[in-house]
Amino acid sequence: MNYSLRKKFHVAFCCAFAASAMCGMTAPARADAEAIPAKTVRFDDLDITKPAGAQILYHRIQAAARQVCERYSSRDLALMAVERTCVDHAIDAAVRNVNAAALSELRFGSALHLAGK
Predict the structure, then answer these.
(1) Buried b (16+ CB within 10 A) or exposed e, 47-65
(2) Which string of b and e fits 15-39 if b means at least 16 CB within 10 Å?
(3) Torsion sign over Cα 101, 1, 57, 12
(4) 68-111, pLDDT tens digit by residue?
(5) pLDDT at position 13, please?
(6) Under 8 Å CB-to-CB from 41, ≥6 apart: which residues?
């Protein structure tokens, strides 16, 4: 993949985590709060126009989202919901911003969501 697409994906992934983390914060924000976590998912080794490449990228995105959102991991039902929401928002945003039909079909069941958001 070219540099522009990787950069766009990285920025989108960071934005998704920032948005989900801000929605799920349970304590008041502080000036010295730790940075919003993010994880770069590389896919320049994949052909994401093909179903096999899209599937591999989708698994990488899922794993990265779970790793970054695990800070909310708990047995507390409220925090479990926050973690799930964080993961879902991160995956949705990453898939939309990669803007590949095969990847969108894996997440949303249709490539029509590409034009959505």
Answers:
(1) ebeeeebbebbbebbbebb
(2) bbbbebbeebeeeeeeeeeeeeebb
(3) negative
(4) 888 766 777 777 888 888 899 999 989 998 999 999 999 988 65
(5) 55
(6) 9, 13, 57, 60, 61, 64, 94
For 91, the token pair is 């995956």
Cα atoms in the 13 Å half-sphere on the side-chain side of 15: 12
The SS3 assignment for 90 reads: helix
Taking the alpha carbons of 73, 10, 115, 109 in that order, is the dihedral positive or negative?
A: negative
3-state secondary structure (DSSP) of residue 50: coil
The residue whose two tokens read 């522009």 is 4
Cα dist. 38→27, 66, 88, 117 in Å? 20, 11, 14, 21
For 21, residues 6+ apart whose C-beta sits below 8 A from its C-beta are: 36, 37, 86
Looking up tokens 């801000």 gives: 22
